[in-house]
Amino acid sequence: MQEFGMSADEIISQLATMLKNDKDYDSGKILGSMCTKPLNIAIKVYEEFFEKNLGDPGLFPATWAIERDVIKMLSKLLNNPNGVGYCCSGGTEANIIAMRIARNSHEIRRPEIIVPVSAHASFDKAADLMNLKIIKVPLNENYQVDVEGVRAAISENTIAIVGIAGTTSLGVVDPIKELSDIALEHDIYLHVDAAFGGLVLPFLRKLGYKVPDFDFKLKGVKSITADPHKMGMSPIGTGGIIFKDSSIVRNYTFEIPYLAGGNFKQATIVGTRSGASVIATWAIFKYLGVHGFTKVVKKCINHTKELAKGINQIDGVSTVIDPIINVIGFKSDEFNIRKIDYELRKRGWALGGFPNFLRIVVMPHIKKCHIDEFLLDLEYIIHKLRGKNLGSSIKSSVEMSY
Ligand SMILES: Cc1ncc(COP(=O)(O)O)c(C=O)c1O
Fold it and tell me: Whole-prediction pTM value?
């Protein structure tokens, strides 16, 4: 830290220079993130109420009440009028909280959790933090968890089964109904990670898409992660964990004795947490309503279809599956996918990288012009790589025509 302070103007101008290398959502180049630019209403509200701290709800009972309302809205969307829960820092914390509640609900000395191999890394973190054995079950030909594999993995030490509704890699929805049946049969906790899908699938259903049951409609589902800071367009740092009812979580809350607002019981991992992001989420839910969210999802899924079609029209690359939600994986049987990624990055595109494919998440900040520009670049890159293989004349003519 320097000896004397700087003026606000100086700081802002210095920061503007320092942050120039960061990507921004408006550019359309962020094609591989599950986050997006928060809605304007959220930014406004966030600025207005930035000092609220839900780590000390006794000081901010009205903010706490707003959080109850957000959770109620999320829970109802997920077919449960009685859900309880918290907004937390993100899907990672939500999944860790769920695994902790599952573990504490059982008295098992060497607890094990069963997750699909497609599960997000947050379950590895949960396993590491809580010394849980994590059993990863392979996927079927549709990239869903293999139900028989889950069944076979159950042991007397199993404390939780995890299903994903909108996988990180391809946006696939696991057969949650079957997992629910297994969970009920064996009296095991079932957690659904709908961090991304939770604010997509209900609206896709409204649009008439065939969406399998994945939420609290299924009796075996004990908790669901659904993150406002993904398709909810909330400020970064707004995850969501919802439990079927208060009996699941009631006995496993932490009581923090020193709080200025008085004792308060919560099951979140973090202490101090943003109230502003929760209020901003409330504002978004009120601003858009189901109708508004459905419109957003419609735009994203239409863009997804268009982009997937465009990718499949380029000889040399193809989508891994027909997109189920607004997530696209694409591969190449002809070229090393890392090479394609490298060339895309050189042109400013930022996609998600998986071992054999690249991932695009068609978030609300992606416009038609970005899709067109991306497809042009991708086609050009494929020609360029092929040109390199076939000889310099092809490469140069393609480059000229580009
Ligand atoms: C299915 C799923 N769960 C959990 C997470 C973790 O969310 P976060 O990055 O908000 O911690 C992600 C992140 O992409 C995800 O796709």
Answer: 0.95
